[in-house]
Queue: 2 jobs
Job 1
Amino acid sequence: MTETQNATLQTLKDNAGTGWVAAWTLTNAASCAAARSGDALPFVDAVPLLLASADLRAAEDYLEQARRGLPTRCAAVDIGSSVVALDGPSACRGVERVLCATLESVRHLRSSEPAGVGAVELARVDTLLSSARRLLLGSQR
């Protein structure tokens, strides 16, 4: 990642908040980054990004089901062209970095939400985030 991308990611992590708000904000940012990157690339390079974006959007839905009104309390962040790259592997690496921060946030939240509906939804979110990450990592080979 470039210095600009690293700075953008660090700013995003620093300003995402904590708990459910951070989980949603980072998931939303990763989803938007994957979709935007996928739109900017030729189809063959865009497929893993668009599939990852679909998983990330589904993860957002599960977070919203667990905590009604979550999107209204969170900042929807569009990190814009800072992760959009000119080639597929670079774009996947950029989105994957955002996704790693998202997974870290969700897993921290899972450790503090041991039971109940929230725990079930967080497990689903973790599975979808992991699926998106595998798609992105698999496309970098």
Note: The domain at 3-138 is CATH 1.20.1260.10 (Ferritin).
Job 2
Amino acid sequence: MTDTSGGPSADDRRARIEATLAAYPHVDSEALEELLTWYRQEASSYDVAMLASNERLAAGYRLFRKQRIDPIGWRDAVTMLAFVALVVAGIVAMLMRQG
């Protein structure tokens, strides 16, 4: 089937993503936004694994993951605190029922 959308082919898109990762962190905001969108919304596990295993991209990929994907944000921290609070409240409630 031929792509008639006029947009870049999958191979062109992958080549741009690889070039961005190879140059990371020295990329402009538009390229970074494209990389983040691709990573979060479009990339399959296989796509990510292929990039992660490419030695040419290894340094840029590791830094990208460390800076943009793996950090725990405030939402993650709030979610974790809420979960811990619920667990502690459940334990306290069970202990109070027994005593």
Note: The radius of gyration is 21 Å.
